[in-house]
Amino acid sequence: MDKNKRKLMLLGLALFISGSVMAQGNGAAGIQEATQMVTSYFDPATKLIYAIGAVVGLIGGVKVYNKFSSGDPDTSKTAASWFGACIFLIVAATILRSFFL
Description:
The chain is an all-alpha fold. Helix content is 90%, strand content 0%. It is built from 4 helices and no strands. The termini are far apart. Keywords: Membrane, Signal, Transmembrane, Transmembrane helix.
């Protein structure tokens, strides 16, 4: 029985050592590849956010024009909020891109 325990311990030790040796592989290359994949998405995402900002700006312009045409006294507040939303989208996209790249 003592002999079986020894064999089992030697087998476990051999598996542990071989497993840790095999695990030391290409970790740095995997991290580099993941980083490259994530940074490759920033250009299309930035262009998409710019396009969304343009659409939001157009919708806001139409809404402000409608309020101005109808004589609504709340026009300046609406214009400021839509303009602020457009500026936020553009600045956020630019800052995120410069921060991560």
